[in-house]
Design a protein that fits this description.
alpha/beta; about 30% helix; 7-stranded mixed beta sheet; globular; 12 helices; 10 strands; about 350 residues
Length: about 350
């Protein structure tokens, strides 16, 4: 019989476990009696989990979708996995398709796509390419810590700026300020919009919820610098977690408005596939006093389940709680002047590149 004792948190990581995905046939990792399994007992604390990066060479780089729940039909993911380690990340289950854990593997065993810019240039050069805003950061964060060394997101933005292609960025990192030169240039032609995600203003909550993401104050400072540079920027209160962060909605919106955000958006927490047991383990480790209450509200929102995968309801939820959240967000947005529409990005300035990297002259 397995113990019901909560797993202890791992310093600097979001997931308390490396749960294996049974739906893909991956076996759970168990100690095999090797002396390395008992090294911590002999030598003391186990070595800190290190991040590794594997180079990936995809054949295409633009991912397309037909979801009615989101406002774009194409996106780019420069990386697989995310070192921010946000316990609630709905992208965690994608690691299962590599026979890796959506738990600790997702935030420590990463994949990078260094040829992304070249692939993007080739796809934009196709004669039948139809221009529409391209999103970065909708699955894993393009400005996670390894971007500092790899610079893949920067190379993608450079291609989009060169070709005058519309771009949407979602991130919870102030690292995108490194690219403010490109973003300000694109903003002058109404080619870019940025959403900065702020889940909580409490650094103690943030440290366990999203352990390797920048401090909330740094994200708010990034909003100010982007707006001052002319880049239209909104705050994304995402996700809203019942009984953990929902009480901060008005405070986050007030702080974002003071930083200059022109608009606010939000998403209720989703727990697809392996995210649900990981989140439950996180609750047991950090909030045992309210774990049952949190999951009761989650299931009330999701029609009695941990997750609702259906279009139209998966983002918004059902019942009284989502209605109250929606009213609070709208009321706070009006109070702070953040109920404006996001500027519509232009697509008429696009100049397709040639495959050899030279721009077409006519």
């Amino acid at each position: 019989m397995k113990s019901s004792k909560p797993l202890p948190p791992i310093a600097g990581r979001g997931a308390p476990t490396n749960l294996r995905p049974t739906r893909t046939g991956s076996a759970e990792r168990v100690p095999d009696g090797d002396w390395l399994d008992a090294a911590a007992d002999v030598d003391g604390e186990a070595p800190r989990l290190r991040t590794t990066v594997t180079v990936e060479h995809p054949k295409t780089i633009i991912t397309r979708n037909k979801s009615p729940d989101i406002g774009f039909d194409r996106s780019i993911n420069p990386y697989r996995g995310c070192e921010h380690g946000c316990i609630y990340c709905f992208a965690r289950p994608t690691h299962a398709f590599h026979h890796l854990s959506p738990g600790l593997d997702f935030e420590s065993r990463l994949f990078a796509k260094p040829n992304a810019a070249a692939l993007l240039r080739a796809e934009l050069a196709k004669p039948n390419y139809q221009v529409a805003p391209l999103a970065i950061g909708t699955n894993t964060d393009g400005y996670q810590p390894i971007e500092r060394e790899w610079g893949i997101t920067r190379s993608i933005v450079e291609v989009l700026a060169e070709t005058r292609h519309p771009l949407l960025i979602t991130t919870k990192s102030d690292r995108l300020l490194r690219d403010i030169d490109l973003l300000a240039d694109m903003a002058r032609d109404n080619l870019v919009g940025v959403a900065i995600s702020v889940t909580t203003l409490d650094p103690k909550v943030a440290r366990t919820l999203e352990p390797r993401a920048p401090h909330p104050k740094r994200r708010l400072a990034a909003i100010r610098k982007l707006v001052d540079a002319g880049v239209p920027t909104q705050v994304n209160i995402s996700p809203i977690i019942p009984a953990i962060t929902d009480q901060e909605i008005e405070a986050i919106m007030g702080a974002a408005a003071e930083a200059g955000a022109i608009r606010a958006s939000y998403i209720l927490m989703r727990l697809p596939y392996e995210v649900a047991p990981l989140f439950r383990a996180w609750l047991d480790a950090h909030y045992p006093d309210r774990a049952a209450k949190v999951m009761h509200i989650v299931q009330d929102i999701r029609d009695g389940r941990d997750n609702d995968p259906n279009f139209f309801t998966r983002m918004k939820g059902q019942g009284i709680w989502p209605q109250l959240i929606r009213q609070r967000v709208k009321r706070a947005a009006r109070a702070h002047g953040m109920d404006r529409s996001f500027p519509r990005l232009r697509s008429d300035l696009f100049r397709p590149p040639e495959r050899d990297g030279q721009m077409e002259l006519f």
